[in-house]
Amino acid sequence: MIELHQTDEDDINFTNRMRKIVLGALLLYKPQEVYVVHIDNWFDWKWLPFSLEELPPFSPNRVLDQQHFTWDATTSAYLPSERGEILHKAQATSEHRNQRRLSKISAPTSFVWYSGNTRKNDAGSLLAYFRIPDGEGSYVAFKRKSDLWEIKRVIGTTEPELLRFEEHGQQQLDAVDVLGSRPNSACRTH
Fold first, then answer.
1. H-helix or E-strand containing 94?
2. pTM for the whole thing?
3. How far apart are the C-alpha atoms of 39 and 177, rounded to whole Å?
4. Is residue 1 part of a domain?
5. Residue 132 confidence (pLDDT) above 70
6. pLDDT over 90, % of the chain
7. Does residue 7 belong to any structural domain of this protein?
8. DSSP assignment, residue 85?
9. What contacts 48, CB < 8 A, 6 or more positions away?
10. Which SS3 state, helix, strand or coil, does residue 145 take?
11. Strands laid side by side in the 63-72 sheet
12. Which of 13, 115, 122, 137 has its CA at 20 to 30 Å from residue 144's CA atom?
């Protein structure tokens, strides 16, 4: 299964919810490649670019972890890949505009950013492009109430669609549990 990076500053319930949403979206859209980036802190909707082409300009020092997965038809799974590009690297602003285009990285690809430091903040965020090159970006803000992470703001998608992703992701996790094995760092589909 695709495991999301987590630190001691991250709330496990938030990370688990993000994992289910990401897994569910991947099962539905089946991109060839997936980038998953863990950002150090909460971020707001302004990180959702006006143009689908632009890579959100997160400073490299905010990136806690970046993972890259590719679809392997032989195993019907997303497998970790070392060949992915570093999405957030130090460069001049003009270079950033000219070179950090989503369409130049690869297609069809999904890109996901999720926030860290959720234990302290009681707030979390998700920014995703699940259908590159033909889809839109989505932003979701979450707020913790007790141990539950409630959706507070949705842009570029709908709450029912997010809940559908989450349900599909949970079904995938349940199916793996029933089989009694957890493939390491792969997201298997039926």
1. helix 93-99
2. 0.86
3. 29
4. no
5. no
6. 51
7. no
8. P
9. 56, 127, 137, 138, 139, 155, 156
10. strand
11. 148-155, 138-145, 123-132, 109-115, 33-39, 63-72, 77-80, 187-188
12. 137
- What does the alpha-carbon distance between residue 81 and residue 51 come to, in Å, rounded to a whole number? 27
Q: Does pLDDT of 179 surpass 70?
A: no
Is 68 a member of any domain? yes
Extended beta strands in the chain, E state: 33-39, 63-72, 77-80, 109-115, 123-132, 138-145, 148-155, 187-188
Joined together, the tokens standing for residue 77 give: 């799974």
* Percent of the chain at pLDDT exceeding 70: 78
Q: Can you say whether the dihedral through the CA atoms of 67, 143, 102, 134 is positive or negative?
A: positive
63-115 pLDDT per residue, tens? 999 999 998 889 877 889 987 888 888 766 555 454 556 666 656 888 999 99
Sorted by sequence, the CB contacts under 8 Å of residue 72 that are 6+ apart come out as 78, 79, 186
Q: Residue 66 falls within a domain, yes or no?
A: yes
In the prediction, which pLDDT does 168 show?
94
DSSP string, 11-61: -HHHHHHHHHHHHHHHHHH--SEEEEEEESS---GGGS-SSTTBPP---GG
Cis before 108? omega within 30: yes
Count CA atoms closer than 13 A to 180's CA, side-chain side. 0
- Number of domain units in the chain: 1
Residue with tokens 């997160």: 58
